[in-house]
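We modelled the chain as a single entity of 337 amino acids. Its sequence is:
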Amino acid sequence: MRLGVAAAVTALKSIAEPTRLRVLALIGDGELTVKDLTRILGQSQPRISRHLKLLIEAGLLERAPEGSWAYFRLAQGGERGALARLIRDALDAADPVLARDRRRAETLRQERESAARAYFEVHAADWDRIRALHVAEAEVEAALASVLGQGPFDLLLDLGTGTGRMLELFRERYRRGVGIDLSAAMLAYARSKLERAGVANAQVRQGDIYDLALPDHAADAIVMHQVLHFLRDPPRAVREAARVLAPNGRLLIADFAPHELAFLREQFAHERLGLPEALLGQWLDEAGLVLQQRCTLAPAGAAANGKLTVEVWLAGWGQARAAPGARGTPRPLEQVR
């Protein structure tokens, strides 16, 4: 770790205050909002905001907007991020003040998890009904894990992350994972689920799958699990995924093969009744990608019993084609949201 004198003094001065040190310790255990911190620390919103501002200016924390809210986390990279973690790890977990803060934070997380679980349970029956139409989830996940490869990936991006299951499934294969979803309720559930599973190297963010706040070629692996059939413009989403895919990156897509279960469109907002391989191949070609591998998971008697076949595709730039040069204005990775 290498910091200049001025940067080191700024960073160290920023935490040379009890409340800011407590804030750093709390956020080191998991992302929190201003509202969360006011409840845990019993201080006013303006005061907490001021402390956060100083820690961000010192490069120790990052702000990730999510709708009208924002979550705060330790800086993800660089010397200042390493310094933030060094300070957090040096703190005595048994200190009475820090232990009390941690207990209050745990109570808050339990409340948040209960609210998120309530949302999930409302929709769980619908998801279970769809899962019952195809092969067992364990079989699908085994195929996904086999096709994706072992990595390790510097950044894995999960588009349409939903419950965050893909981030949990591949937790050992990436240095950093980011899940993107539009639904604040689903993000709350995913965030709680990942925290409970101890997945410390992943975050979830509210974002637009058609306009990712990521620089070109930033992701070594991208997962689009049961996402494309919900979209009005899936080829646009594939093109955007290609834009952020690294030259040697892997794009993993899992979706349904063509079917005739029209109730999925009417009751579950499916825009498309499955994806024909030729059509997906066309979308990949238009994005400059090539199909590298395909896996088909069909339940026994699929055609006769109205079951769904799951297709898993792996795409990339291919050996004969390199990723094109950067397009547009790159944005720092830290702006993922």
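As a brief sanity check on the tokenised model: The longest helix spans residues 96-131. Confidence is low (pLDDT under 50) at residues 325-337.
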